[in-house]
Amino acid sequence: MSLLKSIPKVDKFITNKTFEGLSTTLITKISKEVIANLREDILNNKIQNIDENILVSNVLKEYDSITAPSLQTVINATGIIIHTNLGRSLINKKSLEKAIEIATSYNNLEYDLIEGKRGERYSHIVKTLQNLTGCEDAIVVNNNASAVFLILNTFAKNKEVIVSRGELVEIGGSFRVPEVMTQSGAILKEIGTTNKTHARDYEDAICENTAMLMKVHKSNYSIEGFTSEVDFEEIVNISFKNNLIDYYDMGSGHIIDLPFNLSQKEPSILEIMKYNPSLLSFSGDKLLGSVQAGIIIGKKELIEKIKKNQLLRMLRVDKITLSILEDTLNSYLKNELNDIPTLKMLFISLETLEQKANTLFEKIKDICKCEVIKTQTLIGGGTTPNKKIPSIALCINDEKYKANQLEKLLRKNNLITRIENEKILLDFRTIQENEIEKIADIFNKVFN
């Protein structure tokens, strides 16, 4: 009982000089919890004396834990360029600096500087997208899932949308095309089979309640073997003949031809635009290499209808997103593709990757067993499913740690690697030049 009487009073305890300058509200909350735990420990005979310095230390540790930023930088050594779990595409620093200047100043987000009256926020990217893609008009929402939902809700509420069974996609986070359709108010009409869909399937399914023919990019799988699907060009033609809207949810659209012959099965936005489609939508933060956004391009009359949908206000993007996206699109227009980190990583030569790998090899070869090897990786982010691209990696095969142990130790130091054949690989397709020295420091810390 005497020990219980020695428990410090919260109101007095929080006046400790160590807590000066810290949030009194948070310190009080934590102190109440620490002192409550102390009381429980005394009643359960777990402690025999009270050390107030330890109590103060415990409060400070919890304070630091709560206030420490959860979102942190990591080194992506997986080789997956558009890594969904690691923030997808990197944003160019110059683009972000321009966005900072815009965001920290008043700006013309919705103000027409020429006319001196209210303007439209989407106008800042329309001209660029028109010049880049040849579209009539464009609009941007906060991601491609929003774009899909908004388009379906605008044009197909209580009406049928025809989609091939082989394209009823589910992507990360349980985003399913059928459920999205249901929530948007559209009525899904499946055609064909899982592996084969023909043009006649679209034609036969059209009825008086049909609003749209939709094609969905198979973001995270491919169907091989006895298969067939209808090219979007033919879907556009069928839609035109029947006075319907055609819509391609491209998922991760790209502007330029991809390396390693990937464009043969993954046509670019520019290729699709040759068919004069009604609507296309694609992500800003995947192969386009910019900020998270859902970009919708197509016929002006259709974009105008989307703008009148009340949902748009809930899904619209802010000044920072528009600023970064505009700068990325301008990099395409000016053919300054090296300013887009995603493309830079995608197109970097194997010779350059090998040079970078050898630089790290020289720095850590004396502390662990490693070798530079050829490997393959994926682009990631729901792009080019199952299509691997060549890369160079540093393979760690040291007896001191098993692969899973080493992976965990490196991960604790914010270095994210991958394991293949019970060995740690550091894939240099995603390792930045300024990260090599940091990785060397991490290995010295772990192995020493």
TrEMBL record:
Catalytic activity: L-seryl-tRNA(Sec) + selenophosphate + H(+) = L-selenocysteinyl-tRNA(Sec) + phosphate
Keyword Protein biosynthesis: yes
Pfam families per the UniProt record, alphabetical: SelA
Alphabetically ordered keywords of this record: Cytoplasm, Protein biosynthesis, Pyridoxal phosphate, Selenium, Transferase
Enzyme class per UniProt: transferase
Record GO biological process: conversion of seryl-tRNAsec to selenocys-tRNAsec; selenocysteine incorporation
EC numbers: 2.9.1.1
Names of the cofactor(s): pyridoxal 5'-phosphate
GO molecular function annotations of the record: L-seryl-tRNA(Sec) selenium transferase activity
GO CC, one annotated term: cytoplasm
Stored Gene3D superfamilies: 3.90.1150.180, Type I PLP-dependent aspartate aminotransferase-like (Major domain) (3.40.640.10)
Protein's pathway: Aminoacyl-tRNA biosynthesis; selenocysteinyl-tRNA(Sec) biosynthesis; selenocysteinyl-tRNA(Sec) from L-seryl-tRNA(Sec) (bacterial route): step 1/1
Compartment(s) where it occurs, according to its Swiss-Prot or TrEMBL record: Cytoplasm
UniProt modified residues of type N6-(pyridoxal phosphate)lysine: K286
Protein family (similarity comment): Belongs to the SelA family.
Job of this protein: Converts seryl-tRNA(Sec) to selenocysteinyl-tRNA(Sec) required for selenoprotein biosynthesis.
Protein name: L-seryl-tRNA(Sec) selenium transferase
